[in-house]
Amino acid sequence: MAKAIPRIGSRRNGRIGSRKSARRIPKGVIHVQASFNNTIVTVTDVRGRVVSWSSVGTCGFKGTRRGTPFAAQTAAANAIRTVVDQGMQRVEVMIKSLGLGRDAALRAIHEVVYY
Amino acid sequence: MSHLLIHNPIITKSCSIPTSRRSTPSIFPIAFMPLLHPPHRSIVPSSRSSIIKCMANPRRVKMVAKQIRRELSDMLLTDKVLQYAVLPEAALGADRYLSSLTTISDVEVSADLQVVKVYVSVFGDERGKEVALAGLKSKAKYVRSELGKRMKLRLTPEIRFIEDESLERGSRVLAILDKIKDENDKKTTEGQAEDLQESSDRSNDDWEGDDPDDEGIIYRYTAYTYVNENAYHTHCKTRVSNDIISTIARK
């Protein structure tokens, strides 16, 4: 189920992804996967190509603290920080599975947007 | 049933058991009783007012709480009846545009596994919260029967849904702390900029000029830590561990 991404040139040109990082995306999708022990926040564009991601583990939390809502807040804030400068205006939030990070990440996104 | 009579004199005094999560298991004399027997009056004539209250192993209580949490979350995600009760527009097929989001933040089980308090937090406006909580409360009996079908428990506990505001409070406190921290940073950077200017203007003999600035900075720092401690103490009083972990993690 591959999306039709046009291949420019042959494989010898190296990774195309690094060239795309300077694009401006006005509208994006934030995927929040909130399991009981961890929360992963991924920012993609409307088609689903990942722009940046952050998880509670990458924010420095370990063990049982990864499941807390405060950790989910920091992870969400971390993930959005890289994208806010790129001028993203409209965001859809998709939430998967039930965990404490569900509510907390949504609140963090809401606060970043309104302040 | 003979072993139950042997334990009789020990059990009668162990009624006041704290239901907090951190109760030490050393209090329980019945720690090795794996099964839960329903409470009944003893027939021994020497001790008249002895009502047996059987409390389960605290580790078992925790395991049951975790399992109930998993089952309830699964029900909330997959069961159509429950979803419609919480969010009326789900019945229309509105999968992508939801007005409110309910999360089960905590499940507390009493020590005898008969009462389960489910703390529900709703994200959304006031009306969404009321609708969600009212819907859940109306479906309490249905949830209880569903839980009985899914879990193998001798007695399915009574379920009570309680609104949980701790996540909101925690995020509000964090926002206030962030604001204070920003103000502090601004003041210290302004203070440092002024110090640099003054030291470049004056020479070394004016040491007294620096002291009031230092005192000001120290005073501001203590105010910040005072607010931090205050928030920490108010959160210690509430039952929720989420806030505590968040404030500790911030430090």
Low-confidence stretches of chain A: none
Strands of the biggest beta sheet of chain B: in what spatial order?
Answer: 1-2-3
Largest sheet of chain B: 3 strands, mixed
Structural class of chain B: mainly alpha
Q: Tell me the total number of β-strands of chain A.
A: 4
Q: Please count the helical segments of chain A.
A: 2
Pfam families (chain A): Ribosomal_S11
Family (chain A): Belongs to the universal ribosomal protein uS11 family.
Region (Disordered) (chain A): 1-22
Biased composition (Basic residues) (chain A): 9-22
Question: Which helices and strands, and how do they pair?
Answer:
The complex is a heterodimer of chains A (115) and B (251).
Chain A: E1 27-34, E2 39-45, E3 50-55, H1 69-84, E4 90-96, H2 101-114
Parallel strand pairs in A: 1-4
Antiparallel strand pairs in A: 1-2, 2-3
Helix pairs in contact in A: 1-2
Chain B: H1 2-6, H2 8-11, H3 58-78, H4 80-86, E1 101-109, E2 115-123, H5 126-138, H6 140-150, E3 158-163, H7 166-201, H8 210-237, H9 241-250
Parallel strand pairs in B: 2-3
Antiparallel strand pairs in B: 1-2
Helix pairs in contact in B: 4-5, 7-8, 7-9, 8-9
Pfam family, one (chain B): RBFA
Organism (chain B): Forsythia ovata
Protein name (chain B): Ribosome-binding factor A
What would you note in describing this structure?
The complex is a heterodimer of chains A (115) and B (251). Chain A has 115 residues and is an alpha+beta fold. Chain A has a single domain (27-114), classed as Nucleotidyltransferase, domain 5 (2-Layer Sandwich), CATH 3.30.420. Chain A is 26% helix and 24% strand. Chain A is built from two helices and four strands, in the order βββαβα. In chain A, strands 3-2-1-4 form a four-stranded mixed β-sheet, covered by helices on one side. In chain A, β1 and β2 form a beta hairpin. Chain A starts with 26 loop residues before the first strand and ends with a helix. With 251 residues, chain B is mainly alpha-helical. Helix content of chain B is 54%, strand content 10%. Chain B contains nine helices and three strands; from the N terminus they run ααααββααβααα. Chain B has helices at residues 2-6, 8-11, 58-78, 80-86, 126-138, 140-150, 166-201, 210-237, 241-250; strands at residues 101-109, 115-123, 158-163. Chain B has a three-stranded mixed β-sheet. In chain B, β1 (101-109) and β2 (115-123) form a beta hairpin. In chain B, α4 (80-86) crosses α5 (126-138) and α7 runs parallel beside α9. The longest helix of chain B is centred in the C-terminal third of the chain and has 36 residues, at 166-201. Residues 1-35, 202-227 and 234-241 of chain B have low confidence and may be disordered. Classes of the chains: A alpha+beta (115), B mainly alpha (251). At the A-B interface, α1 and α2 of A face α3, β1, α7 and α9 of B.
